[in-house]
């Protein structure tokens, strides 16, 4: 090892490796978090920090813990009503605490998300909320976890929304169970042949919803052939494109199309009309999220209701209260005219 390496200041990553614990555990042990840390692990972290002469940035801790008034919210797409509804909940809860919310869009790009987290660390927000879906395979996960752990070590608070792929506070959303319940309700209405319009490979939210929907159909006698799963952008235009391709290829007895989110479903409804068909009569459509728009489209959309505003409120509350668990957000199937009984 070079002289420079031997004399470089120890990092939180060095402490975690020396103690044999995760970055998050090392962070909580050193930053005075009230979250539960196994006493043996805590002692190992403290001993490792002493051996390595590790010194956290105490001035940064003081800033993050008490004097900053900023909440940083990272979403995948600011224009998507799913994320804007979550943001509304974060802002409403922040107003109660006299905090200011800043928002940035990751564009579902892991590298961009990592870069944004690095930039935000320099601004020292009091809370950082990550609301975008994680990729199923994420080459940046290790680096992102290290950045977030270092941010927590300086006194900040991290909250994830959806799934806890990283070891931080999380408000859980069970996309799989919601889609499985939807499949049960749709087969109970008499539907048997299904297609799915969903996001591209590698998007965890889309994958969870497809897996849940497929499991629900398998349990209730519905049919979804792999050839009838159409992948497109996880957007309104993606839904339009995916439905158009499905129709042009030939429906071949398909009775209902499940769009993996509501904005895709809205695009699918437009594609059905443009093909000269009547949505709800010639081809049923269901979505997921229950964004406000889908109550006013024609026909009103069957979907899985996610209390999006509550997701945002609970995420910020979890950070400020420093609780251990965010709890699971419950979803609910809402049947409307886009899926009439057969």
UniProtKB/TrEMBL annotation:
Pfam families: LacI (PF00356), Peripla_BP_3 (PF13377). Keywords: DNA-binding, Transcription, Transcription regulation. Residues 10-65 form the HTH lacI-type domain. GO terms for molecular function: DNA-binding transcription factor activity; transcription cis-regulatory region binding. SMART domains: HTH_LACI. InterPro entries: HTH_LacI, LacI/GalR-like_sensor, Lambda_DNA-bd_dom_sf, Peripla_BP_I. It comes from the Bacteria. Coiled coil: none annotated. PROSITE patterns: HTH_LACI_2. This is LacI family DNA-binding transcriptional regulator.
């Amino acid at each position: 090892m070079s002289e420079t390496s031997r004399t470089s200041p120890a990092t939180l990553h060095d402490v975690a490796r020396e103690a044999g614990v995760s970055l998050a555990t090392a962070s909580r042990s050193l930053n005075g978090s009230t979250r539960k840390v196994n006493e043996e692990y805590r002692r190992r972290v403290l001993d490792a920090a002493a051996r390595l002469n590790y010194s956290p940035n105490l001035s940064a801790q003081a800033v993050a813990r008490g004097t900053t008034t900023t909440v940083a919210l990272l979403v995948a797409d600011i224009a998507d009503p799913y994320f804007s509804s979550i943001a509304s909940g974060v802002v409403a809860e922040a107003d109660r605490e006299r905090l200011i919310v800043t928002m940035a869009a990751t564009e579902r790009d892991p590298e961009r998300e990592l870069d944004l987290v690095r930039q935000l660390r320099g601004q020292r927000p009091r809370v950082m909320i990550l609301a975008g879906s994680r990729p199923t395979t994420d080459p940046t996960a290790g680096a992102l976890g290290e950045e977030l752990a270092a941010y927590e070590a300086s006194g900040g608070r991290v909250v994830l929304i959806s799934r806890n792929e990283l070891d931080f506070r999380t408000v859980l959303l069970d996309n799989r169970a919601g889609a499985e319940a939807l499949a049960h309700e749709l087969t109970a209405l008499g539907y048997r042949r299904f297609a799915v319009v969903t996001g591209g490979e590698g998007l965890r939210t889309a994958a969870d919803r497809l897996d849940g929907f497929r499991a629900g159909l398998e349990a209730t006698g519905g049919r979804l052939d792999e050839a009838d799963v159409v992948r497109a952008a996880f957007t309104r235009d993606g839904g339009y494109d995916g439905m158009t391709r499905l129709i042009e290829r030939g429906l071949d007895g398909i009775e209902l199309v499940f769009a993996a989110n509501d904005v895709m479903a809205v695009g699918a409804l437009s594609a059905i009309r443009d093909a000269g068909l009547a949505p709800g009569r010639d081809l049923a459509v269901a979505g997921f999220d229950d964004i406000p728009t889908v109550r006013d489209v024609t026909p009103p959309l069957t979907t899985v209701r996610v209390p999006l505003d509550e997701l945002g409120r609970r995420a910020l509350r979890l950070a400020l209260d420093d609780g251990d668990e965010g709890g699971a957000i419950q979803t609910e199937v809402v049947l409307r005219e886009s899926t009439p009984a057969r």
